[in-house]
From TrEMBL:
Keywords: Membrane, Transmembrane, Transmembrane helix
Name of this chain's protein: DUF2273 domain-containing protein
Pfam families listed in its UniProt record: DUF2273
Transmembrane segments: 12-45
């Protein structure tokens, strides 16, 4: 069993995540599931910034500034 886990860890985690989000879809619906995924992604991003000892607010500010520079050409 340990060999299966070490050789196919990504497949097991992917299958478990698929099962989890499939159950959310069955009980909550598609749009609610997308909101859950968005919140999980935001939480992961903040946790990653915390692990890297970076300021999440500074990263958001930099992202907004880059987004503003990209959209400037459409004005």
């Amino acid at each position: 069993m340990r060999d299966l886990w070490e050789q196919h860890r990504g497949k097991w985690i992917g299958a478990a995540a698929g099962l989890f989000f499939g159950i959310i879809y069955l009980f909550a619906g598609f749009w609610d599931m997308l909101i859950v995924l968005l919140l999980v992604g935001i939480g992961f991003w903040f946790g990653k910034k915390s692990d890297e000892r970076e300021s999440a607010l500074q990263a958001i500010w930099e992202w907004l500034r880059r987004l503003n520079d990209r959209w400037r050409m459409f004005r």
